[in-house]
Design goal:
Largest sheet: 3 strands, parallel
Number of strands: 3
Strand content: 15-25%
Structural class: alpha/beta
Strand order of the largest sheet: 1-2-3
Distance between the termini: 50 Å
Number of domains: 1
Length: 96
C-alpha cells in the first residue's frame, strides 16, 4: 500500500464582521492540525456589491496580529493572498 502525504490548509475571508475573531480562527486551525491559513479578501457579489469590506482600523489590527504571529516559533503559516495589496503593504513595513 502506498502512503500519501497531504497537507491541509484553510482559506479565511477577511471581512469587517469577522476580523476581530481571527486570532480564535488561528487557534482553532492549530488545534485541528491545519498546516496553514490563507487570508483572502472579500470579493464583490454577483451584483458587484462589496459585502463587509475591512476598515482601515481593522486592517491595521490584522496586520499587527500577523506581524506578531510571524515572530512566534512553531506556529502555522498565515499566508496573505497576493491581491490584498493594502494588507501586504502594511506587512512589508516591518521588513523595510
Amino acid at each position: 500500500m502506498t502512503s500519501i502525504r497531504c497537507s491541509q490548509s484553510c482559506n479565511w475571508v477577511a471581512r469587517e464582521d469577522n476580523i476581530v475573531d481571527f486570532p480564535n480562527m488561528v487557534e482553532l486551525a492549530e488545534a485541528h492540525g491545519i498546516q496553514g491559513l490563507v487570508i483572502l479578501e472579500t470579493k464583490p457579489d454577483a451584483t458587484m456589491a462589496l459585502q463587509a469590506p475591512v476598515s482601515r482600523e481593522n486592517l491595521l489590527h490584522l496586520a499587527a496580529f500577523l506581524k506578531a504571529h510571524r515572530r512566534k516559533p512553531g506556529v502555522i503559516p498565515l499566508i496573505v493572498e497576493p491581491c490584498i495589496s493594502p494588507l501586504r503593504a502594511e506587512m512589508g513595513k516591518a521588513f523595510l
